[in-house]
Design goal:
The protein is mostly helical. The chain has 14 helices and no strands.
Length: 260
């Protein structure tokens, strides 16, 4: 299974060093001559510096916003008793199992037009943060495992609910936040349809997933598959870097499930 999963990635990496003719022929897996210049051309042709910054902005802003909103919601729902609490949990769960896909793009776009955010990446970020149900349930399970006695002790010491959340609950959610950050960053980084819709009239705001399509054709509409593969390999690097930093939290969470 690992081989079947990694083999297409290996083919893409090796193909990024081939010429377009050699890649199209598909005769060999290893390139006859290693063309490292493909990465340089892909970076220049697709304006990677601009698209990389846009992708980083969307992914980082979405990750931070999602973690704050989901962790505050998880803490509030677990610690407070209010009318509609069960309905709120049910609606959060329903959004994970009912997929409406592109059907909601038009109303979402109209909402951003009303807010005058249709020409800004903040519109994309807000909509991505709103889809935080999976992160909410991950953090909700972590909050439920934190003893309520800590809240009571903090309240006796004069701490408000917000102060308890910020100084006590949030630091204890470290492993859950790390895993949630990894999943949220990956989903935001790989998002394609929504950024495409919001940046059709703003090419400078396009992220990497949309900008890579600019490498598809070159002069005289000739296909440039080798440049697309080089660009795709470059776009994988930030995800690997995020995984390196979040790997410790991910391993802590899986190890904790076997404790005792």
């Amino acid at each position: 299974m690992a081989f079947l999963t990694l083999f297409p990635v290996l083919v893409a990496i090796l193909g990024s060093f081939k010429t377009n003719a050699e890649l199209t022929a598909g005769a060999t897996i290893l390139p006859k001559t290693w063309h490292f210049s493909n990465y340089v051309e892909a970076w220049k042709t697709a304006n990677f510096s601009r698209y990389t910054w846009n992708s980083l902005f969307i992914s980082l802003a979405t990750t931070v916003g999602t973690l704050l909103v989901a962790s505050m919601a998880a803490y509030g729902v677990d610690r407070l008793r209010f009318v509609g609490r069960r309905m709120y949990i049910f609606i959060q769960a329903a959004t994970m199992f009912i997929s409406v896909g592109p059907l909601v793009l038009h109303p979402q776009f109209r909402i951003m037009v009303t807010l005058h955010l249709q020409t800004s990446l903040w519109g994309v970020v807000i909509l991505l943060v709103s889809a935080h149900a999976a992160t909410y349930f991950i953090l909700y399970s972590f909050v439920r495992a934190i003893p309520r006695e800590l809240d009571e002790a903090a309240k006796i010491d004069g701490s408000s609910m917000l102060g308890t959340y910020w100084r006590i609950i949030l630091p204890l959610l470290g492993p859950g936040l790390g895993v949630s950050a990894l999943f949220t960053f990956r989903a935001a980084w790989n998002e394609y349809i929504m950024p495409l819709v919001f940046t059709m009239s703003q090419p400078k705001l396009q992220p990497l997933t949309v900008g890579l399509s600019n490498l598809r054709y070159g002069a005289a509409a000739a296909a440039q598959t080798h440049y697309m593969m080089a660009g795709a390999c470059l776009s994988i690097l930030p995800i690997l870097i995020v995984y390196v930093f979040a790997n410790k939290s991910f391993m802590q969470m899986t190890a904790g499930s076997l404790k005792g």
